[in-house]
Design goal:
Elements lengths: L14 H16 L4 H15 L4 E7 L5 E7 L10 E2 L4 H9 L3 E3 L21 E9 L2 E10 L7 H19 L8 H8 L2 E4 L1 E4 L2 E8 L14 H22 L2 H7 L3 H11 L2 H12 L4 H17 L4 H22 L15 E5 L4 H5 L6 E6 L7 H8 L3 E4 L4 H4 L5 E5 L4 E4 L3 H24 L13 E6 L5 H7 L4 E5 L1 H5 L7 H14 L5 E4 L26 H7 L1 H15 L4 E5 L5 H20 L8 E7 L8 H4 L5 E4 L1 H8 L7 H4 L7 H17 L3 E3 L7 H10 L3 E4 L4 H9 L3 H14 L5 H11 L5
Parallel strand pairs: 9-10, 10-11, 11-12, 15-16, 15-22, 16-17, 17-18, 18-19, 19-20, 20-21, 21-22
Antiparallel strand pairs: 1-2, 1-6, 2-3, 4-5, 5-6, 7-14, 8-12, 9-13, 13-14
Bound molecules: phosphoenolpyruvate (PEP) and magnesium ion.
Length: 764
């Protein structure tokens, strides 16, 4: 290979040249010698092969400065003497922004920092690339030339590839004086922000839901094999994206659909594939090729200031991560059966409720997701599991690695990654404070739930799994106001047979020890998809084939569940509640179906329930205008405020962009809720509310003001809500709410807050 010096015209490194570089690097790694001598050889080789007068390696020290560790071309005495402070000079800047810097005249750049001891004043052009490992900058690799020139994209790729080899070398611990592990851990310290979706504070260790693959083998043994591996992995990636976008899964995708479409576009991009294949032909393994192309494309994209491209960069990162996982044969942490730490904090870009339930609940403490709103079902499951959870934590996946210490503050929405000891101490105090508060709530457990003026309020819990049962007794709740039966179906990989269902429901009834339990019939569809049930492609899954609609269209499934419930009751009282009822005729149809099953089983000797209570959920607005016809058909109604609000305001509950736009404490929503209480009173039918608002103290106060006397909520909310009730005057809040509903428009939240403050109502 020809090398040229000085100002001679230079050619781009051709493909074979890149192969030569990789072969040389491989030889250097195999030759005897210590870490420093290998770095010296690398800079010498790269300088020669890239026709650069200077090639230098700077590595990060504990204090964040960059020390010149090896150079070809700069003065030797500068090695281990020249140190750039954090962010200083172009080298420091490259380390800070973690993308290549390509400057035809570095000395004219405002960030240029002149170091006389290096003798670099004669060099003008500079190309610096970060030495990255798992997204963390370990140092900078730079080349310089006398001539003023912009380095080509190929030059950038050569240098990035070399930087990957250097990173591998450093992480192996071979370079004396560089503690790469410490560097990695220190540079990850930081705070990210999101929105609390399940209240609490958790200290623990990160488990990446979709573990990132760290590429350790860079150099290919056999190019043909690697090309085949790459091709088959890309093929599988495309197939998996097609599957995700297929009819069955679209409903689950929800607002991620656009993202998936963008992924599919990327995955089918010929240029992407060509670049990866070229990298393999140069001698990289398939994994290293994916990473190299990811880094190079990232550089090109970051040159654009357009936010659109920055967003696409996230897509590319995610897609490359997926491809690496396929190459490494990995799926999600739960599916891989990884041993979870006892204080696991799951971190994910996005997660469905079923995926969360895949994990060993005993070991989960918290959850952080880049998407997801408080009303989404994954948030509901997180609350049911008592996890501290934060959603909308943009960029968190790139910030953490499995095993990192992390604190999830789901009171404020802060996430502390690799926190310092003072932060850990501060949070340990906070956790102790919360524990004290929890003990105070527990002390309230045996007290009757009565307002200051003597109104008796009944607090129930929402549940859906056997693990929820202990919460019923620990919280002091009077019963289970909503048992989401679909959660059992979601954690099963096949449709649970009737006997299995019977057994589960029996365990719930036995475990409740006589406290009432309201079983809600299967509420699937929307964002709750069962992988083993075919679901048609739907444009608007929330408005689609869901809940009672499926039950009536597929009576076989429904009848099995009803039979299981009747058998489990074994003659005891049984309450069944029907979700997503939109017309009275639907509840009539369900009623007839249940009556038939009771008769059918009675003929086979299964005892009839001592009392069978049938309830309708009021969560579709149409029902608000048919309440007088509905009430005589049912034994109780329960307002599903999560869905009711989404439909009233036409704002998708799982889309954080619109999910928070409308306040349930608005006069429009509260008037609707009031109508239900009034209709119940007119017909002597009990009315409850089991949406998430029941568990928020201010909202619960408003509900009592509207006349609700039974509400059902996540177990962790029972204490705070009870404490609020004990400090509340029900008649006073009723008259304030009535007046506000008559005189105001829009949100009345601030008035309610003022009332609570003035009256000393405890809102936790
Ligand atoms: C609701 O919609 O308010 C409700 C309780 O049901 P889910 O959240 O399960 O849809
Ligand atoms: Mg609902």
């Amino acid at each position: 290979m020809q090398t040229r010096r000085g100002d001679e015209p230079r050619t781009l490194p051709s493909e074979p040249a890149l192969r030569v570089i990789l072969r040389r690097l491989r030889e250097i790694m195999a030759e005897p010698g210590d870490g420093q001598s290998r770095l010296d050889k690398i800079v010498r080789q790269i300088s020669g092969l890239m026709v650069a007068e200077v090639c230098s390696i700077y590595l990060k020290r504990q204090d964040g400065s960059l020390e010149l560790f090896a150079t070809e071309g700069l003065k030797k005495e500068a090695v281990h003497n020249t140190r750039m402070k954090r962010g200083e000079g172009l080298v420091g800047r490259c380390a800070e922004i973690a993308v290549p810097i390509n400057e035809p005249d570095a000395q004219l750049h405002p960030a240029f920092s002149y170091r006389p001891e290096t003798g670099e004043e004669i060099y003008h052009s500079m190309l610096a690339v970060p030495i990255l490992r798992g997204g963390v900058v370990l140092g900078v690799l730079a080349v310089q030339n006398r001539t003023r020139r912009e380095y080509s994209d190929e030059d950038v790729e050569v240098l990035l590839t070399t930087a990957m080899v250097v990173a591998e070398h450093i992480v192996s611990g071979a370079v004396a004086g560089v503690n790469a592990a410490a560097e990695i851990s220190r540079s990850l310290a930081g705070v990210a922000h999101g929105e609390p979706i399940s209240e609490g504070i958790a200290l623990g260790h990160v488990v990446l839901h979709e573990p990132r693959v760290v590429v350790t083998k860079l150099l290919a043994e056999d190019v043909a094999t690697e090309l085949k591996r790459l091709e088959s992995a890309v093929h599988r990636l495309r197939a998996s994206l097609d599957e995700m976008l297929s009819a069955e899964a679209l409903a689950q995708a929800g607002d991620h659909r656009d993202v998936l479409e963008a992924y599919r576009m990327f995955a089918n991009d010929r240029g992407w594939m060509r670049r990866m294949e070229a990298a393999v032909r140069e001698g990289l393994t398939a994994e290293a090729a994916v990473e190299r192309v990811q880094n190079a494309t990232r550089t090109r994209m970051l040159r654009q200031n357009d936010p659109y491209w920055r967003e696409r960069l996230r897509d590319l990162d995610d897609l490359s991560d997926r491809l690496l996982r396929i190459l490494a044969g990995r799926t999600t942490a739960a599916r891989e059966g990884l041993e979870l730490p006892a204080d696991t904090i799951l971190v994910a870009r996005t997660m469905g409720p079923a995926e969360l339930l895949d994990y060993d609940r005993e070991k989960l403490r918290g959850l952080v997701i880049e998407e997801g709103s408080g009303q989404s079902h994954v948030a509901i499951v997180a609350r049911a599991l008592g996890l501290a959870a934060v959603g909308q934590a943009r960029g968190i996946v790139e910030l953490v690695s499995t095993g990192d210490p992390i604190i999830v503050d789901a009171e404020r929405g802060d996430i502390h990654v690799r926190p310092s000891t003072d932060i850990v101490t501060a949070y340990s105090d906070k956790v102790r404070f919360r524990a004290r508060r929890q003990r105070r709530y527990q002390a309230l457990r045996e007290l009757p739930t009565v307002t200051k003026d003597g109104a008796r309020i009944h607090l129930h819990i929402n549940a859906g799994l056997l693990v929820d049962l202990p919460h019923l007794h620990e919280s002091g709740a009077e019963g289970i106001g909503l048992f989401r039966t679909e959660l059992q179906f979601m954690i099963s990989s096949t449709f649970p047979r009737r006997d299995k269902q019977t057994e589960t429901y029996r365990q719930i009834l036995d475990g409740a020890s006589g406290k009432p339990v309201v079983f809600r019939s299967l509420d699937i569809g929307g964002d709750k998809i069962l992988p083993y049930i075919r679901h048609p492609k739907e444009e608007n899954p929330a408005l689609g084939w869901r809940a009672v609609r499926i039950s009536l269209d597929r009576p076989g499934l429904f009848r099995t569940q009803i039979q299981a419930l009747i058998r489990a009751a074994g003659g005891r009282e049984l309450s069944i509640m029907v979700p997503m009822v939109s017309t009275v005729s639907e509840i009539e149809a369900v009623k007839a179906l249940i009556a038939r099953e009771v008769d059918h089983l009675a003929k086979r000797g299964v005892p009839r329930p001592e009392r069978l209570r049938l309830g309708a959920m009021v969560e579709v607005p149409s029902l608000l205008f048919e309440l007088d016809a509905l009430m005589p058909q049912v034994d109780f109604v329960s307002v599903g405020s999560n869905d009711l609000m989404q439909f009233l305001f036409a704002a998708d509950r799982s889309n954080a962009q619109v999910g928070h736009r409308y306040d349930p404490l608005s006069v429009s929503a509260l008037r609707a809720l009031k109508q239900v209480v009034r209709a119940g009173a007119r017909h002597g039918v009990p009315v409850t509310l089991c949406g998430e608002m029941a568990g928020r103290t201010l909202d619960a106060m408003a509900l009592i003001g509207l006349g609700y006397r039974t509400i059902s909520m996540a177990p962790a909310s029972i204490g705070p809500v009870k404490s609020m009730i004990l400090s509340l005057d029900a008649a006073k809040v009723a008259s304030v709410v009535d007046e506000l509903l008559e005189t105001k428009s829009g949100s009345i939240r601030s008035y309610l807050q003022d009332f609570a403050k003035a009256e000393g109502v405890e809102l936790a």
